[in-house]
Amino acid sequence: MLSNVITSIRMRYAFAGAAFGSVFTSCALAYDAAFVNPQIQSLTGLVQNNPAHVAMALMPAILGFTFYKVGESRTKLVEELERRETAERSLEHNAFHDSLTGLKNRHALERDVAALIARGIDGDSRPAMMLLDLDKFKFINDTMGHNVGDEILLALSRRLVEAIGRRQTVYRLGGDEFVILWSGAPSSEVICEFCHALVKLISFPFELAKIRLTSGGSVGVTWIEDGDTSMSDALRRADLALYRAKEVPGSHFMLYDRAVAHEAEQRMQMESDLRLAIEEDRFFLEYQPIVHLATDRIKGFEALVRWRMGDRVIRPDMFIPIAEKSGLIIPLGKWVLTEACRQAVTWPDDIGISVNIAGEQFKDGDFVPFVRNLLETSGIAPQRVTLEVTESLFSVDVAVVRKSLTRLRELGVHLALDDFGTGFSSINHLRTFPIDTLKIDRSFTEMMLENEREAELVGVIMKLSKAFGMATTVEGVETHSQLDFIRRAGAGNVQGFLISRPVQEAMVPVLLREQSRLGGGTPEKIVHRLRA
Ligand code: C2E
Ligand code: CA
Ligand code: CA
Fold first, then answer.
1. What is the rounded CA–CA span in Å between residue 369 and residue 357?
2. What is the Cα–Cα distance from 433 to 424, expressed in whole angstroms?
3. Pocket (CB within 6 angstroms of ligand 1)
4. CA 96 – CA 98 distance, rounded (Å)
5. Residue 306: which H helix or E strand, with range?
6. What CATH fold (topology level) applies to the domain 106-256?
7. What ranges in 327-451 are assigned the alpha helix state H?
């Protein structure tokens, strides 16, 4: 009640001190007046009679002041405690929340899953974990800037928070990785229904400050199992399910099950076999000729790697993606480039060598110095070497890639954009990256005679490359009519089974000798000789 009248703690203490002092003084003086000096009738008389009474009379003031000081120290103490508590609370909030979105973070997920596990997981109460990842986030971030990336993350986090129910919590693990933890025991039917909606929700366009963007995304789902010891166990399964979901083009979700587990095991097995094969040098190269259409002569060969496993030969499509994911592409890619240069240096000087370079190899800071060193040690003229990069490169850090490509170009090697038309290229990439040749993907070649639109597209790509001063190579030409068509469309070079399948190293000089014997000769003639 006193606190309502006197709000300051210090003043309340001072008041209490003064009150206590007054009571003390009154009692002491009253005692004196009653029993010690009953003859003295007035208060002034009492005080004059004994000087000690002066101090007693001052007691309310003395005690009031002393208590005021005590109150002051207490106030300071309380304030300090409050300050510390606020600091601790904000530290704890920062430790368990993501600064951009305000959502809970990875540490919070770790803590919350540990609490769920400690409570006990049984078949009837398995919580579910959904791991979500945007499709083009890295690309958007790199090409449109981090502000746009942040805007998307914020918009997505708002969508997710609005979409979830009482028993669900959203976490942001970092980058574009989000987790929804679903306590209780959602059945797979309920989860599938929710994930259908979730995938739609992610795929819906984002209205940002300056732009409207659609990203799409995928979701991997697992339950927290009896036997899981931490968040990582469940997250690993969700990640495997997500990996599978991402393999299907478009936005999808995938529940972790035996098939996913089996596939992951196979992939891991393949990865360890691959590691061993690199150590044991189990790879070889085949070469596919590239023919220059204006002269009808072989202008170079593309090196294609093969893996010899017992008496089987494994094609690159089976293992390159695994090599890329596991980082093994770095040593493997170096081996391919070294081997290709070592062999090509023995060919005639006007014959080029093209080598495929995976985007991951650009993440290796050592790549450009490696190429420089290889050119010197192998003795091959740099202008004979073409490095084929794919459009997926543009989803790595664009600035880093541009710098590496420019430095490679300065070394004198040529650069080709492989599988053009299947990925992420924009006109802007063609304009700003130092590309010499566009390799038009096989899928266009397959369709161009059956579909007018594809045929027109091939024409447009030819015009585009001309406008940017680039050469074109059409891949996957298998028939004479396809060859006629691309010749008329103005293609520069051709590659495909019609000319030749990839051949063993020993066949390269044979092919070249044959060509000289024929005095140049059309691709058809080369085909004829090869088939004969
Ligand atoms: P790519 O770079 O597009 O290579 C051309 C692929 O198309 C080769 O398949 C080749 O055999 C095939 N091909 C060529 N002409 C025709 C045709 O007329 N019809 C059909 N149907 N196919 C044709 P391959 O050797 O199986 O290589 C597959 C992919 O693996 C390559 O596609 C390339 O992306 C990758 N690859 C191959 N070697 C390497 C390498 O050393 N490093 C990296 N990073 N990737 C490689
Ligand atoms: Ca290629
Ligand atoms: Ca290609």
1. 15
2. 14
3. 288, 304-305, 315-317, 320, 333, 336, 356, 358, 418-419, 442, 475-478, 495-497, 502
4. 7
5. strand 297-309
6. Alpha-Beta Plaits (3.30.70)
7. 329-344, 367-378, 398-411, 427-432, 442-447
Nearest ligand to the CA of 288 is: 1
pTM of the model: 0.70
Domain range annotation of the chain: 2-96, 106-256, 287-301+329-531
Pocket test for ligand 1, best of 320, 388, 396 (most atoms within 8 A of CB): 320
Residues 462 and 421: their CA atoms lie apart, in Å, by 12
Distances (CA, A) of 30 to 7, 19, 53: 33, 16, 11
Architecture of the CATH domain 287-301+329-531:
Alpha-Beta Barrel (3.20)
At CA 136, angle to CA 322 and CA 395, rounded to 5? 60
* Sequence letter at residue 166: R
pLDDT at residue 334, as a whole number: 97
Nearest CA to ligand 1 atom 20: 476
Q: Residue 239 Cα, ligand 2 centroid: separation in angstroms?
A: 30
> Per the structure block, which two tokens stand in for 262?
């089996």
- Which single residue is written with the structure tokens 């028939």? 479
| Structure confidence by residue, pLDDT tens digits, 211-248 | 888 888 999 999 999 889 999 999 999 999 999 998 88
For residue 426, the number of C-alpha atoms closer than 13 Å in the C-beta half-sphere is 9
Tokens 């000319």 belong to residue = 499
CA distances, 259 to each of 18, 199, 266, 270 (Å) = 82, 22, 11, 16
Give me the helix-helix angle, 452-467 and 480-489, nearest 10°. 40
| Percent of the chain's residues with pLDDT above 90 | 58
Contacts of residue 136, Cβ cutoff 8 Å, sequence gap at least 6: 215, 216, 395, 424
Alpha-carbon separation of residue 512 from 179, 290, 492 (angstroms): 58, 12, 20
Per-residue pLDDT of 29-61, as tens digits, reads 788 778 877 777 676 776 677 777 777 778 888
Residue 312: other Cβ atoms inside 10 A: 7
Within this chain, domains 106-256 and 287-301+329-531 share the same CATH topology: no
Distance of CA 174 from the midpoint of ligand 1 (Å): 35
CB contact burial 110-130 (16+ within 10 A = b; e otherwise): bebbeebbeeebeeeebbbbb
Atom of ligand 1 nearest to the CA of 315: 26
CA atoms of 350 and 384, how far apart (whole Å): 7
The angle formed by the CA atoms of residues 50, 56 and 61, to the nearest 5 degrees, is 145
Q: Which H/E stretch holds residue 243?
A: helix 231-247
Long-range contact list for 91-100, CB < 8 A, 24+ apart?
98/171, 98/172, 100/150, 100/153, 100/154, 100/172
Contact partners, residue 64, CB within 8 Å, separation at least 6: 14, 15, 17, 18, 21
